[in-house]
UniProtKB/TrEMBL annotation:
InterPro entries: Methyltransf_11, SAM-dependent_MTases_sf. This is SAM-dependent methyltransferase. GO terms for biological process: methylation. The lineage of its organism: Bacteria, Bacillati, Actinomycetota, Actinomycetes, Micrococcales. Residues 47-125 form the Methyltransferase type domain. GO terms for molecular function: methyltransferase activity. Keywords: Methyltransferase, Transferase.
Length: 258
């Protein structure tokens, strides 16, 4: 499984370094939350794996959160249950413990996604719900025009939909999730019509792919995007996105039934 970071981060990103402002920029969007909650069905006990600061945990269920990063666990609000310090690949639960399981923007962080997915299925009697991105669609976002290294990093890290389905087994379906224009969860595509937001260094830090690219990539991105916003070049090419109420890009919900 490799060595965990000093704060316990178990994947390829060190949230002890990049996670300090995560909760402020990655606030769950209620419309995306509703899609996840619907997929969980009538399940009462839910495992949230890679739970982070608690985004998208349903308030009306008995949730068991698992999060290896101490930095992320420290950002969980008091009204949420304390998270178990464990990794996806070695869950400390018996077979069939939970009615359902969920993970949001996390599976690409795991050292061995397929092993983690098999563990999710092992401990879950019902649906396994995964909010992730389709790596084949990531580079279609306008960010590729300015930082292709970042979208290439994302595409490399996200497991394919076929990999997810194969590891989970059972009946698996994948559905694109529309992103609202005023989305409160600051992943890249959430800013499809608000490009100025990504000039904020903290907003970029809340998207882990930026931690894998060189300083000159970040500097070039800011310089070129700021220039195109000032000159109107961005709006000439992408301005219609500013008023589009929803955007369907790479964001996808994968649901596996046993």
């Amino acid at each position: 499984m490799g060595t965990r970071a000093t704060d316990g981060s178990a994947g390829d990103a060190d949230y002890g370094t990049i996670g300090a402002s995560y909760a402020g920029y990655r606030r769950p969007d209620p419309r995306i939350a509703a899609v996840i909650t619907k997929a969980l069905g009538d399940s009462r006990t839910v495992l949230n794996l890679g739970a982070g600061a608690g985004s998208y945990e349903p308030a009306d269920r008995e949730v068991t959160a698992v999060e290896p990063s101490a930095q992320m666990r420290s950002q969980r609000p008091e009204h949420l249950p304390r998270a178990v310090d464990a990794t996806a690949e070695q869950l400390p639960f018996a077979d069939g413990t939970f009615d359902a399981a969920m993970t949001t923007f996390s599976v690409h962080q795991w050292r061995d996604p397929e092993a983690g997915l098999r563990e999710m299925r092992r401990v879950t009697r019902g649906p396994v719900v995964i909010l992730t991105c389709d790596p084949t669609l990531v580079d279609q976002f306008w960010l590729t025009d300015y930082a292709p290294e970042v979208t290439a990093t994302e595409a490399r890290r996200y497991p394919s939909l076929e990999t997810l389905a194969g590891a989970l087994g059972g009946r698996t379906r994948s559905t694109g999730v529309p992103i609202p224009l005023d989305c409160t969860d600051g992943f890249h595509e959430a800013y499809y019509g608000r490009p100025e937001k990504l000039l904020d260094a903290q907003a970029r830090l809340a998207c882990s792919a930026w931690s894998f690219v060189a300083d000159e990539v970040r500097e070039r991105f800011v310089r070129e995007l700021a220039s195109d916003l000032d000159s109107g070049a961005w709006d000439e090419k992408h301005g219609q996105l500013r008023t589009r109420p929803e955007y369907t890009g790479s964001l996808v919900l994968v649901v596996s039934e046993p």
